[in-house]
Amino acid sequence: MDPVRNPYAPGAGQRPPELAGRDAELSAFDVVLERIAHGRPERSLVLTGLRGVGKTVLLNQLRSAAIGHGWGTGKIEARPDQSLRRPVSSALHMALRELRHPDQESMDAVLGVLKAFALRQTVDAKVRDRWQPGIDVAATTGRADSGDMEIDLVELLSDAAGLAADVGRGIALFIDEMQDVQADDVSAICAACHELSQQGAPLIVVGAGLPHLPAVLSASKSYSERLFRYLRIDRLDRVAADRALLAPAEREDVSFEPAALDALYAAADGYPYFVQAYGKVTWDVAAASPVTAADVAMAAPVAEAELAVGFFGSRYDRATPAEREYMHAMAELGGPHGAAVATSEVATSLGRKPASLSPARDSLIKKGLVYSAERGQIAFTVPHFGRYLLSHPD
């Protein structure tokens, strides 16, 4: 079939042509936006799940919904080596501009606080790290400029929420890869959300991250378990996975035989990224509509080879030899489905003491390749990674 008309779109954070299986989350978020607009209390939101389940896509869709309701929005992608002060400043500046508050004097007052927050550097900041935000007002003194991230963020977001309340709308700050936020900044976010919820202020944080993100938040503030609403984003069920394939194809006058859909679901296992990856290659190899199981059988090795390089291999290449040894042991213990395994079992299989493997394990966690499923347990953040490692023993 014509590859130019191929509707499938595997990509990091790239919206699929049919966002299937997320209707409940989108509807629930619409309710959150309406409740906050009417002065009702609501918690901030945290999405968690493995790589490839579509957290970033859903996060972007939620942002679009907020924009559709007239909210001011800004988005951040957290990095483990970066303070949130600069990215929060940029994201909130964008959100305030989207609000279009009619009183310029009130807007300038909050922009002055924002500039003070942005310019407050740590004492050890290097000259090359000094940054000037594009805000054409004088920085305010004595507000959000203490240097304590928790104090400053609470003051800044409270002032920004006041502007949103003036115009009867809200502000939503979206944070992707939230598990990578530095410890002090996590504490600041939790404190700010706590204060804003007590005030009934129209500002929420919507975060997305790996499955251990709730534990990261809980370790920072014990009340975070009640502060956020947690949504686990999982693989698609059969109906949603079929819809993700069929709806775009039907718009191109292409259909699938039931056996082809069976084979595609077995290959992709319901993970949205894999659904798109297998769907794209299957389209390209199919000679005509309807797509058959034979087309899927021909496409599967090609799709798997592409995933081995781009999805799995690029992550594996980031690991050191010691980290690779640790992951191979996990794969052998957890099997092709990548079940969580005990860290003590990994040590036993390698003939090592658990303490000696802590550096490799901690480094893998920081790289986002594994996560602590629960105390004493470890699992891959990438679905089917165990299967990949078992088929690539090197």
UniProtKB/TrEMBL annotation:
Q: Which residues form a coiled coil?
A: none
Identify the Pfam families for this entry: AAA_16 (PF13191)
Domain of life of the organism in this record? Bacteria
Q: Where is this region: Disordered?
A: 1-20
Which of UniProt's keywords are assigned here? ATP-binding, Heme, Iron, Metal-binding, Nucleotide-binding
Domain Cytochrome c as annotated: residue spans = 165-331
Query: What InterPro entries does the database record attribute to this sequence?
Result: AAA_16, Cyt_c-like_dom, P-loop_NTPase
Q: Carries keyword Nucleotide-binding?
A: yes
Q: Which GO terms describe its molecular function?
A: ATP binding; electron transfer activity; heme binding; metal ion binding
Q: Which PROSITE patterns match?
A: CYTC
Q: What is this protein called?
A: ATP-binding protein
Q: What is the species listed in this Swiss-Prot or TrEMBL entry?
A: Geodermatophilus sabuli
